[in-house]
Design brief:
alpha/beta; Rossmann fold; two-stranded antiparallel ribbon; about 40% helix; disordered N terminus
Length: about 400
Amino acid sequence: MAIITEEPEPEQPTHSRSQISPTKPNNNPFSFWFYFTLSVSLFTLFFVFTSSTLSPQDSKTWFLTLPSPLRHHYSNGRTIKVQTHPDETPLQVFTLQEGPTSSENILIVHGQGLSSYSYRHLAKSLAANGLHVTSLDLPGHGFSDNSVEVSVEGGANGVFGRFWYVYSEIQERGLFWAFDQMVETGQIPYEEIQARMSKRKIRKPIDLGPQEMGKVLGEVIDSMGLAPVHLILHDSALGLSADFVSERAELVRSVTLIDTASSTKGAFPVWALEVPVVREVVVGVSFVFAKVVGLCCSKRVGVADSEGSRALLKGRDGRRAVVNVGKRVNSSFDLAEWGEGLKGVPMQVVWSAGWSEEWSREGHRVASALPQAGFLTHSGGRWAQLCDLRRTQPLR
């Protein structure tokens, strides 16, 4: 009888670690730069697409996306140059005039996050009564300059800064610029990139405070021949213009304060334009922006007004400029002391009586601090275009 035995399978040859030859690393710079350029290019395409969809930065493209009423508003105005600092480039300030030029001059200074477009109904109403009305967009708002070009010394800081610089270079020179340079010359253009990084110009959102805004108002009044002018200050405009009124009282014939308090910075909440994610939703979604305006400014704001303000915030660094200026508003000065120094200047306070009880009490506090001022109320919200001033003509 045969005995069947199970023979062991032949063992596979083993190799020690010393017998395994290590894989040679790929030191080819062409491979690295190809994949780097490809990844950055894909990121750039995605970023350009999304940024152009949400907030186009090119001025011409941005202007063409504006609602027709805004473009019509711009076509009726003009820009003038103002100098806030001797060594800096002049700023372009948008102005719009209504009514006969031979009449009394009124200058409307808008509040936080607004522009001359927000006061078009008020300006037309006053002009219809034979007054010459000028409204302007303060720097950082509306159609005025929202950013300035500044020179930056030194290279980009950090990994993100260098990556952002590469991204800006690709935007300017094309997607495959570095790769093309490497193919043509056989080397990476490190020296050229470093030289451009050491001295470069960037656009920075406007960051002006009350002193600079006072200079803007003074130059606008002087260059347009408005003095002596009746000033209408709405919302946070008092915090930006109080120093100017005190220092250049000879240019001012009267002051009208509309829903403006020294203890508050403005009706529209600046934080909603500053907090990440929140700001994108507020500025990017029409319904959300309208809700914020309804809760904080006025429940009766129309679609045209809401969409116009939102469109002006979306492009050309408008949102960031409004945040910068909003942080610089002087909301801590003594209103009574300020009024004491302007006893010879006629004043009136126009206040919303239907917004809230707390806001009505604030209006009476402002009127008490300025005993020489007349006090009137209106039925609109805290946005000036809803305020009917036909019965509150400038004091003479």
